[in-house]
Amino acid sequence: MTQTDAAATANGPQQKDTVTLAEAGSNAEPIELPVLSGTIGPDVIDIRTLYGGTGMFTYDPGYTSTASCESRITFIDGDKGELLYRGYPIEQLAESSDFLEVCYLLLYGELPNAEQSAKFSNDVTYHTMVHEQVNLFFRGFRRDAHPMAVMVGVVGALSAFYHDSSDIEDPYQRMVASYRLIAKMPTIAAMAFKFSIGQPFIYPRNDLNYAENFLHMMFAVPCEPYRVNPILAKAMDLILILHADHEQNASTSTVRLAGSSGANPFACTAAGIASLWGPAHGGANEAVLKMLEEIDSHDRIPEFIDRAKDKDDPFRLMGFGHRVYKNYDPRAKIMRETCHEVLDELGVHDEPLLKIALELEKIALQDEYFVERNLYPNVDFYSGIILRAMGIPRRLFTAVFAVARTVGWIAQWSEMIEDPSQKIGRPRQIYTGPARRDFVSIDQRS
Ligand code: SDX
After folding, report:
1. Does residue 281 have its Cβ closer than 6 Å to ligand 1?
2. Residue 221 backbone dihedrals phi, psi, to 5 degrees
3. Would you report the helix, strand and coil content of the chain in percent, each value rounded to 5?
4. pLDDT of the chain, 446 residues: tens digit per residue
5. Which of 83, 255, 378 to mutate to test ligand 1, by most ligand atoms within 8 A of the CB atom?
6. Does any ligand 1 atom lie closer than 6 A to the CB of residue 97?
7. 170 C-alpha to center of ligand 1: Å?
8. CB 3.0 to 4.6 Å from 212: which of 20, 118, 208, 305, for a disulfide?
């Protein structure tokens, strides 16, 4: 498809053609459906008149061929293995930007100038503390509660604290809620970690940048000064950039659907955290490490490759495959390079799990089963190795993913709220249950 001039889509998708559906459903007359074009990527068939014109729905479990919305935030080309945030390639942002600058880009659509960057960083920094009452929520959890269970609970509870930024019709309140969520997620994730190991919560520090502050809140203790390792802070900042947004993935679609009813952004973000937790989605980074630890040695790799190919075995090669990428996930490439840098910096040269991961990747990418299905490593395949090397426990990996993805969720939520054509999301179904029948009293039942 030729690249439509970006200006041409400034006012939304442009109709370029129509398709005709002949003799569809109860309607003897053919029906014409518009074909719309965006800036780049596949055209879409606008089916909004389909049910009215034919009495039929489309059917697309898992939305493999469905565009649920118009968005200007993130673009993925699965065949090329390309990821753009507001048009900027992820490789360039990873190389030259930082997480808060990427947050600004995702929220506002342009990279900030020096003044905008300083103000945004200051505004987020001064929202990093949580209300002192929030600390009490943690007391209700068992110490061994999964951090994602804690995050769902505590982030949802923020709805009860910030009534002054939950009116979604007020752009100012939407902005304050966005800043609060981006700022407080690292604080809450670090509190979940501290609570799980019985250490006191560490307050955020305004003299540290976002990634430094996150590591400081996780690893500092009140008894002595803590120096953030700049290499690890840079690695964390990069991990946050790579995980910040990813088009209409499961958790982002969850946030959009929750938000479409008018629910407040804190509750919508809690819904996104819940969806991200699944092992098929953000929970995969934790599952990858568990899998690598289970494989444990090179000579067991063929056994796990065979299990992943066995249709009777529910085991899947975690960190492999993707709904959209049918090529290498560009984030996985960057993550693999960072892996070597972080391990070298930490003097962890013979990390056995990295060696197993590299060998597993090599064998899988030569195996017909994976090649035929375009199964490549995704963002989760290497991230766990880096996080583990940084001293972050496996059960906190997905919470780190949630910290990063909050800006993507909120940017997409804001875009939906500001879309004048927005309405409550309400999919239909194809019904295969019993046809109408009358009630049978219990004495008549067999
Ligand atoms: C993330 O959507 C996003 O953008 C998500 C994400 C983001 O940034 O938000 O990128 C983050 O969630 C990355 C994905 C992390 N999940 C995992 O690594 C879990 C392992 N991967 C699989 O569960 C799977 O690949 C999915 C869930 C990621 C994608 O599944 P799809 O698109 O529904 O693909 P599918 O299940 O239809 O698989 C197609 C074929 C099937 O075999 P056949 O029926 O054709 O014989 O490929 C097989 C699958 O069995 N397959 C795998 C496999 N992934 C797919 N076989 C073995 N191991 C795997 N990992």
Report:
1. yes
2. -130, 155
3. 50, 5, 40
4. 333 345 445 678 999 899 998 876 666 688 999 999 999 999 999 999 999 999 999 999 999 999 999 999 999 999 999 999 999 999 999 999 999 999 999 999 999 999 999 999 999 999 999 999 999 999 999 999 999 999 999 999 999 999 888 889 999 999 999 999 999 999 999 999 999 999 999 999 999 999 999 999 999 999 999 999 999 999 999 999 999 999 999 999 999 999 999 999 999 999 999 999 999 999 999 999 999 999 999 999 999 999 999 999 999 999 999 999 999 999 999 999 998 888 888 888 778 888 999 999 999 889 999 999 999 999 999 999 999 989 999 999 999 999 999 999 999 999 999 999 889 999 999 999 999 999 999 999 99
5. 378
6. no
7. 39
8. 208
* Ligand 1 midpoint to CA 97 (Å): 30
Contacts of 295 (CB under 8 A, 6+ apart): 301, 304, 356, 360
Alpha carbon dihedral 282, 284, 286, 291, in 10-degree steps, equals 180
Q: Are strands 74-77 and 82-85 parallel, antiparallel or unpaired?
A: antiparallel
Compute the distance between CA of residue 155 and CA of residue 276 in angstroms, rounded to an integer: 14
Beta bridge partners of residue 82, listed in sequence order = 77
Q: Is 380 a catalytic residue?
A: yes
Respond yes or no: is residue 306 known to be catalytic.
no
Q: Is the CB of 364 under 6 A from ligand 1?
A: no
Task: For the beta carbon of residue 387, count every other beta carbon within 10 angstroms.
Answer: 23
321 lines ligand 1 (CB under 6 A): yes
Q: How far apart are CA 427 and CA 425, in angstroms?
A: 6
Sheet with 82-85: strands ordered across: 74-77, 82-85, 88-89
**Ligand 1 near 371 CB (within 6 A):** no
Residue showing tokens 């400034």: 10
Catalytic hit among 146, 246, 281, 322: 322
